[in-house]
Amino acid sequence: MTDSKPHILVVDDEPNVLVTYRLILQQQGYTVSAAISSEEARTVLKKGNVDLLLCDLSLEKQQSGFDVIQFGRDLDPDLSAVLLTGYASVEANERAEAEHIPVLFKPIDIQQLLQVIVELLRKNHESSEAHGG
């Protein structure tokens, strides 16, 4: 079971961004799901096997990346998430910091993204082992 590949959900309203991230992450050996809307993201999250959520801050008018992350964390309080954005207000940055969500600015530096993913997944693994999981 410990050999299973981490499952990453990428949520972005730009199809080319989803394709790019999916390809890069699959090349790194991750299992990747892609969602183009908060509704699609919720459907994947309900299945319950997501290890990490990469989510665009700006989704539909009524939904933000924070809403999707909150939904995921309501289902799994230990869900790690990264917020991706072209622009984040001071309020958004402060909220992300308070909720322990790293923020990466577009255009995303792929090496930085991969490094953040590795660090978050390592923390997940360590905390699940510490809790006997």
Automatic annotation (TrEMBL):
InterPro entries: Bact_response_regulator, CheY-like_superfamily, Sig_transdc_resp-reg_receiver. Residues 7-121 form the Response regulatory domain. GO terms for biological process: phosphorelay signal transduction system. Coiled coil: none annotated. The modification 4-aspartylphosphate is found at residue 56. Gene3D superfamilies: 3.40.50.2300. It comes from the Bacteria. Keywords: Phosphoprotein. This is Response regulator receiver protein. It comes from Koribacter versatilis (strain Ellin345). The lineage of its organism: Bacteria, Pseudomonadati, Acidobacteriota, Terriglobia, Terriglobales.
